[in-house]
Design a protein that fits this description.
The chain has about 150 residues and is an alpha+beta fold. The chain is about 30% helix and about 25% strand. It has a single domain, classed as Glutaredoxin (3-Layer(aba) Sandwich), CATH 3.40.30. α2 links the parallel β4 and β5. α1 runs parallel beside α4.
């Protein structure tokens, strides 16, 4: 698991926009990197729609939102279209970034897989906040409150 104060692991993943994205692409701004289990499932949809509704406020606080799951770029594209999501979702089919960030583990009755976790990474690529156990509804507000309190 990546802890607060540590350098965020790099990644190179294809996004819902069809382009490859790396950690370095987000340097110079704060990054809200959230990991979630599966596109178009109830909790994941709630979390994505909430982040989308709060995207303007998050952006005004100097941060960008990016989601990561094992789903394909095509699945992400459909998910984004269905709910008019206006941020990038990254596809990690091998769970390389998911595991590097410590967002992989036992999901109880669902077996092993992607855990719902969020990392806020500063302009220099350092993890400044970890939300290790995220409840989907209202998580966007937790992120906003952290960004406000940190003066971002």
């Amino acid at each position: 698991m990546v802890n607060e104060g540590e350098k965020a692991p790099d990644f190179l993943l294809v996004g819902s926009d069809g382009r490859k994205h790396a950690m370095k692409d987000f340097r110079g701004k704060y990054l809200v990197l959230y990991f979630y289990p599966k596109d178009d499932t109830p909790g994941c949809t709630t979390e994505a729609k909430d982040f989308n509704a709060s995207r303007k406020e998050i952006k005004e606080l100097g941060a960008e939102v990016v989601g990561v799951s094992k789903d394909s770029p095509e699945s992400h594209g459909k998910f984004c279209s269905k709910y008019s999501l206006d941020f990038i979702l990254l596809s990690d089919p091998e769970s390389s970034a998911i595991k590097a960030y410590g967002a992989y583990g036992d999901r109880g009755v669902f077996g092993k897989g992607t855990l719902r976790k969020t990392y806020i990474i500063d302009k220099n690529g350092i993890v400044v906040k970890v939300f290790p156990k995220v409840k989907p509804g209202g998580h966007d507000r937790e992120v906003i409150e952290f960004l406000k309190s940190a003066g971002k």
